[in-house]
Amino acid sequence: xxxxxxxxxxxxxxxxxxxxxxxxxxxxxxxxxxxxxxxxxxxxxxxxxxxxxxxxxxxxxxxxxxxxxxxxxxxxxxxxxxxxxxxxxxxxxxxxxxxxxxxxxxxxxxxxxxxxxxxxxxxxxxxxxxxxxxxxxxxxxxxxxxxxxxxxxxxxxxxxxxxxxxxxxxxxxxxxxxxxxxxxxxxxxxxxxxxxxxxxxxxxxxxxxxxxxxxxxxxxxxxxxxxxxxxxxxxxxxxxxxxxxxxxxxxxxxxxxxxxxxxxxxxxxxxxxxxxx
Amino acid sequence: xxxxxxxxxxxxxxxxxxxxxxxxxxxxxxxxxxxxxxxxxxxxxxxxxxxxxxxxxxxxxxxxxxxxxxxxxxxxxxxxxxxxxxxxxxxxxxxxxxxxxxxxxxxxxxxxxxxxxxxxxxxxxxxxxxxxxxxxxxxxxxxxxxxxxxxxxxxxxxxxxxxxxxxxxxxxxxxxxxxxxxxxxxxxxxxxxxxxxxxxxxxxxxxxxxxxxxxxxxxxxxxxxxxxxxxxxxxxxxxx
Lengths: 277, 240
Prior knowledge:
By secondary structure, chain A is mostly helical. In chain A, 42% of the residues lie in helices and 0% in strands. Chain A is built from 11 helices and no strands.
């Protein structure tokens, strides 16, 4: 009897809780999450299997790693104001990120959403070309603990459990003259050139005044240099950048406009990548 | 069965159910409701609007645009102030599927100030032949909510407003573009007309705190008591 009551109690509590947390419209969101595949992560994924649990202990351990490896740029309080930050791009973006802001450039989630854990793991692993070093040499378990620590700095991570994921529809189209030509048309039609320039050199008519959220000048990337691809230059990386945009910067999300014509994004990816070849 | 445990169980379930209603606005039939109306004004000489520095797309945007921060009409009436009830948990129904327009037209946002109810959607459109992006920032900290590219003309993009508060709308491509969406948890919010007048109707009788907000002039909170079927008057003047 006792056992049975407890069961009923927890069952009804769970039901109410699920209504509470899912209202409104979260049922669809959960369904969409199940259907959507997060953008491909072109890094060695074997460490995922050994992912440590996310709890108070791993967060605390992550903090120790942070204080050994990250404070020089990101600062003791993770506000992006470490002692070295001053010497890195004093007057221009990007500066080391204020990790307490909850604003993430490199996401496989919709604009305005928090990133997936895997997104933060990827950034720690690969770094940001030209700006942040990669930590591929750090043990994967330690990188995960860093992810957990970084997440603990932003309360929203606990509240938002079902971020809208950018769907990766279709796959990489092998690059060809035909595909690149189509990608060029997409680049024109969707007005990428207005910021990135007709030749992709980051010198479009709108380039000169672009700023990041903190008011630092942040010119569009020169797409003719591979080293400009801060979010990665593999096809899946470029796809993710186009669709998700960069929160905190000027690059907007194109996910709404390419819905249903994702093939064009893959052609665009081939065109953009051809500029640096 | 342990009575105490049963009570704990009931308590937990009940509090969870209550939590689901906390902060949520409840639509009810308002009978014999009153209204709040009045005029928001600016006393003294109206501040002048700066000339915006048009740096690009002049063929679409025009060579010169004046900002629309202060629109003061006859008798000091202040347009584009928001009047919103601060503490109201239930009242009139509203269109939950309502769309709140944000149009990019000649490199300005129209309307300049609008109100919405949390959960409604923004309908963002680009009427211009050039690239715009609509970048929404939430609250005083200006945290990015969305940053949406609008490369194609006249294709409406709908985006839900999931947080309440002041949303600042900007366009990175045209740095002078600026507008606001005041998102309330309920439908009792209104933007003042060109003569500064406003009306909030179907307000259940009661005492309320009413906020008056203006993008540049700040905000003021006033106590207003609405009688059943009556009209409460709320006038406020910004400036000296």
